[in-house]
From TrEMBL:
Keywords: Ligase. Its EC number is 6.2.1.17. GO terms for cellular component: intracellular organelle lumen. PANTHER family: ACYL-COA SYNTHETASE, ACYL-COA SYNTHETASE SHORT-CHAIN FAMILY MEMBER 3, MITOCHONDRIAL. This is Propionyl-CoA synthetase. Belongs to the ATP-dependent AMP-binding enzyme family. Residues 514-593 form the AMP-binding enzyme C-terminal domain. The keyword Ligase applies. Gene3D superfamilies: 3.30.300.30, N-terminal domain of ligase-like (3.40.50.12780). Coiled coil: none annotated. GO terms for molecular function: propionate-CoA ligase activity. Pfam families: ACAS_N (PF16177), AMP-binding (PF00501), AMP-binding_C (PF13193).
Length: 635
């Protein structure tokens, strides 16, 4: 790894900036170091500081006299339940659940896997791990048993915290059988599972291994926060890479705390006592940072919403929640607003609610398409801010700066299709294949010049080599984001999409490489490719293209159905692989590499780049005819 630039321009100034931001954190031991390099050649922030993230999110506010203020609001249109927790009440729940974990032999540094729907117990379990210095790894509820098993084997959790079921629009999803199946598949066997029983569907418990959350909680006592080092891990969050094995992004405690506090004020314009709503899921990074940690650390009220933007019960659901809890800033994915705009194109339902407290809308997870940007601006009359970030960074790399000249936070003018400007600490550059910066307006690889600011990934769990080869080796001195884009003449950054085998489906990050691995395991499949294609609602959806082995008797239709089910069973419903074509052959180079980019261009109706190394150009004609016949290509 090349650290040459640590001594170059800007760094001293940046260090001073973060040093002063760190003073806003109530450390147990104040750091004397700001930025240093560690034994893997990466950066540590505030290495000799000591703190506890659960203390900062809860106890600290009680000490400041905010104990009675609402900390967490749970709103669940799918069950009809609504609950609020003051800082005092949430601290009691967290401190007792930390004791529950401790009684199951969980201590500092141990991993705890959390597989939960959007219920307060998910946030309580996360904060309880943080209180003990244990490392949580939350797995999104939409993932299937196999995905869970892969994460269990990588993180090797001492305990698992789960619930009997999740509730989707009109169905109850039993979580416990998925967990049981995952533990069967995994080589690592967690010794304790703590199950929160929901009345909608109770789960049966395995004697000796499983415990009822409530039984353990009833005999627990509140325990104090355990001091941890700034660089000790707070959590591991698995995210899709280009292969079947997800990457365990490791987040530290100290840098994270500084970044969370900084972003609440400077990216979102939130002050203590404000209400912030990230309509996402605790299984994603947005949920970690902006449902749980940042709003609580900043002394805001946060909302945990167990519902959808539409159909729970209608496209007015988001506006209802904003009005009911006087939400000051709302953050969600463009796909959620596309769904709302589709059901309520004239925004009639918006008018049913008092949105006078709502100041700004924030969008991320995928590029905010101009049509949705204009729709939101016109219908809500609010600033609409697209901001770009990743699981790896944990907070926004680019957004629109706010100023507070008139007593009210005001964003700079935004531009449709742009994610704004690099946020303080992120030195974003657009590079060509040789690693040279390109001119304004030219597309290239979006890279961040090292060092990155506090809060970004510390490493990939169990895999330093992958951390270095996946992000750092391509352009020495830079972190490669995996996104392509450009900066225009006015300095606005446009993120145009992934340059690797990762796709964003409804704001959810998925690996096409992983889907290919799942399809290729089927005995009838000779070879296959999965590419992301444009979808009006979800932004992108995967399309499977499969070549079947000779001599297979089953019909194409039956095989396609079986393969789609296999993706659902092995990865989860969230993969949304609804289109799968059986084809004669795939376009390849002479060395056998599948031309995925060419396939994507054909399906999206773009100009096709056919590489000179293509094995047989005829295959392009064959496939064009097939895509036309199956109405996959634009007319
Ligand atoms: N647990 C179990 N299953 C889940 C799940 C969860 N937490 N979340 C989604 N699923 C299932 C859904 O039930 C659905 O299953 P189905 O194919 O059997 O119907 C499948 O996964 C796909 O779900 P989803 O992508 O949510 O599609 P949808 O058609 O049900 O809903 C939207 C469409 C637009 C309403 C929905 O995608 C949405 O709310 N998007 C916003 C996403 C978001 O907030 N992203 C956060 C990033 S910041
Ligand atoms: P995740 O790690 O799940 O948060 O996904 C990160 C990826 O989502 C990024 O690398 C981008 O490809 C995409 N993404 C997130 N926010 C935006 C945005 N505002 N504009 C464009 N792409 C985005």
């Amino acid at each position: 790894m090349n650290n040459d630039n640590t001594s170059k321009t800007g760094l001293i100034e940046d260090e001073k900036h973060w040093q002063s931001q760190a003073q806003l954190v109530n450390w147990f031991t104040n750091p004397t170091q700001t930025l240093s390099t560690n034994n893997i050649g990466w950066y540590d922030w505030f290495a000799d500081g000591e703190l506890n993230t659960s203390y900062l999110a809860l106890d600290y506010h009680i000490e400041q006299g905010r104990g009675e203020q609402t900390a967490l609001i749970y709103d669940s249109p799918v069950t009809g339940n609504k609950l609020t927790f003051s800082y005092l009440e949430l601290k009691e729940q967290v401190a007792k659940f930390a004791d529950v974990l401790r009684a199951q032999d969980v201590s500092k540094g141990d991993r705890v896997l959390i597989y939960m729907p959007m219920i307060p117990q998910a946030a309580i379990a996360m904060l309880a791990c943080a209180r003990l210095g244990a490392v949580h790894s939350v797995v999104f509820g939409g993932f299937a048993a196999n995905e869970l098993a892969v994460r269990i084997d990588d993180a090797k959790p001492k305990a698992v915290v789960s619930a009997s079921c999740g509730i989707e629009i009109s169905k109850v999803i039993p979580y416990k059988p998925l967990l049981d199946q995952a533990i069967d598949i995994a080589s690592h066997k967690p010794s304790n599972c703590i199950i929160y029983q929901r009345p909608e569907l109770e789960a049966s418990l395995v004697a000796g291994r499983d415990h009822n959350w409530q039984d353990l909680f009833d005999v627990a006592v509140e325990i104090p926060p355990v001091p941890v080092k700034s660089t000790d891990p707070l959590y591991i969050l698995y995210t899709s890479g280009t292969t079947g094995k997800p990457k365990g992004v490791v987040r530290d405690n100290g840098g994270h705390a500084v970044a969370m506090l900084y972003s609440m004020k400077n990216v979102y314009g939130m002050e203590t006592g404000d209400t912030f709503w990230a309509a996402s899921d605790v299984g994603w990074v947005v949920g970690h940072s902006y449902i749980v940690y940042a709003p609580l650390m900043a002394g805001c009220s946060t909302i945990l919403y167990e519902g959808k933007p539409i159909k729970t019960p209608d496209a007015g659901a988001f506006w209802r929640v904003c009005a009911e809890y006087k939400v000051n800033a709302l953050f969600s994915a463009p796909t959620a607003f596309r769904a709302i705009a589709k059901e309520d194109p004239d925004g009639k339902l918006i008018k049913d609610y008092d949105l006078s407290h709502l100041k700004r809308l924030y969008l991320a997870g995928e590029r905010l398409d101009p049509a949705t940007y204009y729709w939101l601006q016109e219908k809500t009359n609010l600033p609409v801010i697209d901001h770009w970030w990743q699981t790896e960074t944990g907070w926004a790399i680019a957004s629109t700066p706010l100023s507070k000249e008139t007593g009210e936070y005001q964003p700079l003018p935004t531009k449709a299709g742009s994610a704004g400007f690099p946020v303080k600490g992120f030195n974003v550059e657009i590079l060509d294949a040789q690693g040279k910066q390109v001119a304004a307006g030219q597309q290239g690889t979006v890279a961040i010049k090292l060092p990155m600011p506090p809060g970004c990934l510390a490493t990939i769990y169990n895999d330093v080599d992958r951390f270095q080869s996946g992000y750092l080796n391509a352009y020495p001195g830079y972190y490669v984001t995996g996104d392509g884009g450009f900066i225009d003449d006015d300095g606005y950054l446009f993120i145009m999409g992934r340059t690797d085998d990762v796709i964003n489906v409804a704001g959810h990050r998925l690996s096409t490489g992983e889907m290919e691995e799942v399809l290729a395991e089927h005995s009838a499949v000779a070879e296959c490719a999965v590419v992301g294609i444009h979808c009006e609602l979800k932004g992108q959806v995967p399309l499977g293209l499969v070549v079947i082995k000779n001599g297979i008797e089953a019909s194409d239709e039956a095989l396609a159905k079986e393969l789609k089910q296999k993706i659902r069973d092995d990865i989860g419903a969230i993969a949304s692989l609804k289109d799968l074509l059986i084809i004669e052959r795939l376009p390849k180079t002479r060395s056998g590499k599948i031309l995925r980019k060419t396939l994507r261009q054909m399906i999206d109706g773009q100009q096709i780049d056919i590489p000179s190394t293509i094995d047989d150009p005829e295959v392009i004609k064959e496939l064009s005819a097939k895509f036309k016949q199956d109405k996959l290509t634009p007319a």
